Amino acid sequence: MDKYRRAHARPGAAPSWAPSTVLVTGGAGFIGSHACVELLDHGYEVIVVDDYANSTPHVFARVERIAGRFVGAVYELDIRDRRALSAVFDRHPVDAVMHFAALKSVSGSVESPVEYYDTNVGGTTSLLRTMHEHGVHRLVFSSSCSVYGDAGAGPLDESTPAHPTNPYAASKRACEQILADVCCRRPEYTVLCLRYFNPAGAHPSGLLGEDPQGAPDNLMPHVAQVALGHSKRLQVFGGDYPTPDGTAVRDYIHVMDTVEAHRIALDHLADAPGMHVFNLGLGQGISVLDVVAAFSEASAKPIPYEVGPRRPGDVATLVADASAVSRAWGWRPTRTLADMCRDAWHFQRLNPHGYAGAERRPNPKP
Ligand SMILES: NC(=O)c1ccc[n+]([C@@H]2O[C@H](COP(=O)([O-])OP(=O)(O)OC[C@H]3O[C@@H](n4cnc5c(N)ncnc54)[C@H](O)[C@@H]3O)[C@@H](O)[C@H]2O)c1
Ligand SMILES: O=c1ccn([C@@H]2O[C@H](COP(=O)(O)OP(=O)(O)O[C@H]3O[C@H](CO)[C@@H](O)[C@H](O)[C@H]3O)[C@@H](O)[C@H]2O)c(=O)[nH]1
């Protein structure tokens, strides 16, 4: 173990296995880029693969500036390209994988279901085959609370039956099933499947945040665009849900808490083989209008909005019972909705046009 991980080792624990090199798929994206910072900050060697379907390579200059260290290597590739992916595993001694790469828009998946299954399920099977060929058996998988579907007002624990209501959620559920089947058949695998509720916010430095390609799909970056004056008003998708104010309720969790959980997950990849599923959320139901009010307060800007029809594939409420992860790892998220709005606004104000214009780093070909 190097000096970083020695400093963060659990007291009394002498793990027989500790990852040193972590492959981050989708590491240029919103959560993946924050995970890179978290990993670099804790001494890990980080290798990234991303095809920039929803991101740009500009992000890595920011990641490295915050961490004060370099990402080990960045490869521009589609994870479904097994030959290219295999070359990355040939070149680097990967100990564990954090698998973020996927398409994530609920409405996009309703419009293009095949694309979503192809990328999310096909990408995961390609990764698993490549990991298998290279003897890599430890994975942290980005799943989603959307697998629960319309399961009621919650809070939902991990035993809640999965009933996805859109192709995106179904593709995540399919990946979970594949991972469970692999773990069942092969005792050398450990998979930590993290079902995030709604990650939001940004790195507190203001250097790193959410910079999707095209118009943002998620609520908070959209609200930030309105606060900036780039959009006239927010379209609220549905005001007739069975919720206190009629707008949809989600459980927002700060992206820094989300990636902290991923880093801590690495310490638990040797605890027990098999697949282990954990919710990541604050356990607080927050409506679209609650987000509007909190962001307006954080930015001191009005957020005009109009209530329109529901968005296809959406559900009324998704709130976590996130106690299992606290019991298992002694960890819980600490940042509030106000923190998420403050940090997202800080990033948007400093980067009104995202990362565009930042220095481009060359991508080695695998
Ligand atoms: N953001 C959320 O609210 C949320 C909630 C639950 C789960 N998740 C999951 O977390 C993960 C990360 O989400 P995010 O918000 O950072 O999304 P994101 O779109 O910002 O990041 C995903 C990254 O994966 C890359 N990618 C997509 N397809 C690829 C492919 N075929 N090959 C290589 N790279 C590819 C994209 O370019 C992007 O950089 C996703 O798996 C998503 O489904 C996100
Ligand atoms: O302009 C907007 C954008 C969103 N919403 C609503 O805000 C809520 C949250 O939307 P969004 O931020 O898009 O989150 P989800 O639809 O919950 O989907 C995100 O969160 C899921 C987990 O809940 C992840 O799995 C998905 O990948 C991720 O896109 C939903 O009710 C939307 O209808 C609006 O009203 N107006």
Automatic annotation (TrEMBL):
Gene designation: galE_2
Alphabetized UniProt keyword annotations: Carbohydrate metabolism, Galactose metabolism, Isomerase, NAD
Family membership noted in the UniProt record: Belongs to the NAD(P)-dependent epimerase/dehydratase family.
EC number(s) recorded for this UniProt protein: 5.1.3.2
Organism, scientific name: Streptomyces longisporus
InterPro entries: Epimerase_deHydtase, NAD(P)-bd_dom_sf, UDP_G4E
Pfam family, one: Epimerase
Cell division as UniProt keyword: no
Subunit (UniProt): Homodimer.
Protein name (database record): UDP-glucose 4-epimerase
